[in-house]
Specification:
496 residues, 23% helix, alpha/beta
Length: 496
């Protein structure tokens, strides 16, 4: 039960400085939105009505009741009780309560009911432990963003592994109703959990939907990333280079950070990886729809990766290059995910906040202005694949692989800009125009943002980003690395 304490001063000169003929006033806050009830039938809220004369209350419909309906001088606690469930995904005003003092003075108060089921639940999933110090800072930044309207009527859950690689915990971060401050409670502990197990990930997501049911779901995945490269190949250990010819091409490490490299979200936690196709199936198997995923992980704005996710999410926010260890500016982006008391989200604003943080805010303490980001509309990818398939059927021209915009500092690149590659390799003008049109639908230009360069732990340098080449999404089509597993990708099969 929620209690609201305020005063209805009904024409009492002795209690206020107003004259007896002043209008009815509400104290202490005349902008108070009204009495707010939970979404279930039978939910209650109370307020204190203070008067210096007799009064009575009327309600304008049967969606709620009020008791008592009459009273006299002094303070009276009035209880409002809902009679119906609010099945809508947002708050609704279910009626008006009117208090009338003897002599005709009145005050009307809206009665508002929150949704019985949360408009959305957002899961922040942070598997692995090598970034744990950054995860904890991210969570602290989220707590600073929580207030009475964020997450509002929605829910925000965090799953991470603070104790070991084989256990996990789900916490909820919320605004405490009475104190109006941020609070955290643990919803579930896992004694056995492996982020590399599709079954464990699916169980986690099912538990999220059971613990925090919602009309829709969103997800943020904060971890290390290597796009489509299979977990079984191209592992990411922190190891020194092997002697030439001693490692088979398909077993070659994904990349080796240079000594003294800054932390990015690309390497670490070897043996605790999951294939992107398995992750997509775990998400797609859930009953509730996931509208979007934000990858706070390196290299995930990759067409081979995104194509596998199109049956699991509607939208993806990700970077084509490495993300610095600090990750997303959570204090800034969380309010954009819970707009209008949690009923709306704005992914374009998330992209802009990420870019702005690394373009402007990051340089206050660091020199690495390294922030590339994009938004993918996954419903457009099948049409885009069809255009690329038809382009692949046309003659290609000679192109310099080294001249295509790449997005990691490895000696032999894996990730190249998709648009720059297509423009460099194909000549059919009509199909190229169609390709650019479909790219704009799949990757809205307003969300294709980049700093002048990106930092890579694989060469310890800032690497330039050519503005005319940047389309915000990569492909491994020109790469000579991992060709056998690459040609098994669903994107490759759909376009060749």
């Amino acid at each position: 039960m929620k209690q609201f304490t305020f005063f209805l001063l009904l024409g009492i000169a002795a209690l206020t400085a107003c004259r007896e003929d002043d209008p009815v006033t509400l104290s202490p806050d005349a902008s108070f939105e009204g009495v707010v009830l939970a979404g279930d039938p039978g939910s209650q809220a109370t307020f204190t009505l203070t008067a210096s004369t007799q009064w009575e209350i009327t309600v304008d419909n049967d969606s709620f009741t009020a008791a008592p309906l009459k009273g006299g001088m002094g303070a009276t606690t009035v209880t409002i009780t809902s009679t119906r469930e609010n099945t809508a995904p947002e708050r609704r005003t279910i009626g008006t309560l009117t208090a009338r003092a003897r002599g005709g003075k009145t005050f009307s108060l809206p009665v508002i009911q929150r949704p019985a089921t949360a408009p959305q639940t957002v899961l922040l999933y942070m598997p692995g432990r090598s970034l744990l110090s950054y995860y904890k800072k991210n969570i602290e930044d989220i707590r600073e963003a929580i207030n009475e309207t964020v997450p509002g009527d929605s829910r925000l859950l965090v799953c991470y592994q603070p104790e070991s690689h084989t256990t996990a915990r789900i916490d909820e971060i919320f605004c405490e109703e009475v104190a109006h401050g941020c609070a955290v409670k643990t919803l579930r502990d896992y004694d056995v959990f492996s982020p590399s197990s599709a079954e464990d990930v699916a169980r986690l997501l099912a538990d999220v939907q059971d613990l925090a049911p919602a009309h829709r779901y969103g997800m943020i995945v904060g971890c290390h990333g290597k796009a489509w490269v299979p977990a079984s190949q191209g592992s990411m250990p922190n190891m020194g280079p092997a002697a030439p010819g001693t490692i088979a091409p398909e077993a070659e490490p994904f990349g080796i950070p240079v000594p003294g490299a800054l932390t990015t979200r690309s390497f670490g936690d070897p043996g605790h990886e999951i294939d992107i196709a398995d992750f997509a199936r775990a998400v797609a198997s859930q009953n509730g729809p996931f509208d979007y995923v934000i990858f706070d992980a390196c290299f995930m704005a990759n067409i081979e990766t995104l194509y596998d996710l199109r049956g699991a999410f509607d939208y993806v926010v990700a970077s084509p290059c490495e993300i610095m260890g600090a990750g997303f500016p959570y204090k800034k982006i969380i309010p954009y995910l819970f707009g209008q008391r949690g009923t709306q989200y704005n992914l374009e604003a998330v992209c802009k906040a990420y870019y702005d943080f690394y373009q402007h805010g990051w340089q206050e303490a660091h020199t690495e202005q390294s922030g590339c980001i994009s938004l993918a509309v996954l419903s457009e990818l099948d049409v885009l694949a069809d255009v690329v398939r038809r382009l692949h059927a046309t003659p290609t021209k000679d192109y310099d692989r080294n001249g295509i915009q790449s997005y990691e500092g490895m000696p032999t690149h894996i990730f190249y800009d998709l648009g720059d590659f297509v423009g460099s390799a194909y000549t059919d003008a009509a199909l190229l125009d169609e390709f650019r049109e479909r790219m704009e639908a799949a990757f809205p230009p307003a969300c294709r943002l980049h700093t002048a360069s990106f930092y890579s732990a694989y060469n310890g340098m800032k690497n330039p980003v050519r503005d005319e080449a940047y389309t915000g999404v990569t492909t491994s089509e020109p790469s000579t690395r991992y060709r056998v597993p690459f040609e098994q990708c669903n994107w490759y099969r759909a376009t060749h």
